[in-house]
Structure formats: structure tokens, C-alpha cells
Amino acid sequence: MDQRPESPTDVLTAQHLRLFLGLLPFKDPPEFLSWINRPPTQSAWSEFAASVSLPHQDPGLTTLLPKVRDAVDASSLPEARTRLMYPDKRDWNSEDHHVRFIVGVICDSLLEELWTEKEWVEDPDRIVRAVYEVLVYLKGCEALGVRPLDIRPMSI
């Protein structure tokens, strides 16, 4: 029997889960959904959603890649400003908030050993792309009015 998606949410989920299982080190959709709903990722998302009005101009991965790499590797200000616990965001634009989300998730994930330091050094662009896609996914869920935990993964 042909399994058909029940809603646009199911289509979004099936497409993104295939992408995430290729980009992130997870074996199955429940493992990914557990990770995306854990407190560090959700607090980074909550801060982003509170700071950036949706819809907004997405700066794009090409623009964000060097800024995220510089911020994660930085040891001083101003490059490391997105890593501060309570940064002064009065002059921030949408791009700065995108960088902060991605940097926060990457730094937390490195600490939790989702990726190793060696993986970061060898291929930071792959990791940035993966977390960028997570942000795109969360923005899509927000636009549809659903939380990632409310989604039933289809077989992929």
C-alpha cells in the first residue's frame, strides 16, 4: 500500500529527516527529534525566535559560513561576541542572530561530543551546514505552527 503524506507538515518532516540523517550523526528519526528537543537546542531556538521576527530575510549559508567558523574559533571580541552569555544585541541584525543560533548549537554539541574537535577542524563547513539546516527546519515548523515533537516521522 502506498503511504501518502497527510499534511504539508508530514512532507516537510519526511524531506528534512532524510536530510538530517545524512548530515547529522543520528541513526534514526526519533534520535534526531530527541536531540532537537533537548534544552540546549531549544533554548537557542527560543532566543532566536524571540529576537528575529518571522518572516525575515534569510542571510543564506554562504554568508554565514565564514562568520560562524570565525566565531567558533575566536578567542577574543568582537569575533566571539555571539558566544557571550548575555551579549548586547541592540545593534544586531538578522544575520547576527543566525550566527548566534548556529554557534550556540555547535558549541553545545561539541561539548556533548555529538561532533569531535577533530571533526570540527577537518570539516567545519559540513557541521555549519547541518546546524543551518536545523535552523531552517525550526523556522519551517514555526511557520506551520507545529513543534518538532508534535510531528510523527513517516518512514523514510
Q: How many domains make up the coordinates?
A: 1
Q: Which residue ranges are poorly predicted, with pLDDT under 50 across at least 5 consecutive positions? A: none
Helix content: 55-70%
Outline type: globular
Structural class: mainly alpha
Number of helices: 7
Beta strands, count:
0
Radius of gyration, in Å, reads 16 Å
The end-to-end distance, rounded to whole angstroms, is 15 Å
Quaternary structure state of the chains depicted = single chain
Order of helices and strands: HHHHHHH
Largest sheet entry:
none
What is the residue-averaged pLDDT? 84
* Strand fraction: under 5%
Could you give a short description of this structure?
This protein has helices at residues 8-23, 29-36, 39-51, 61-73, 94-111, 117-122, 124-144.
Task: Describe this structure as you would to a colleague.
The structure is a single chain. The longest helix has 21 residues, at 124-144. This protein is mainly α. α3 runs antiparallel to α5 (94-111). It has helices at 8-23, 29-36, 39-51, 61-73, 94-111, 117-122, 124-144.
List keywords for this structure.
7 helices, 156 residues, mainly alpha
Write the layout of secondary structure elements.
Blueprint (H helix, E strand, L loop, with lengths): L7 H16 L5 H8 L2 H13 L9 H13 L20 H18 L5 H6 L1 H21 L12
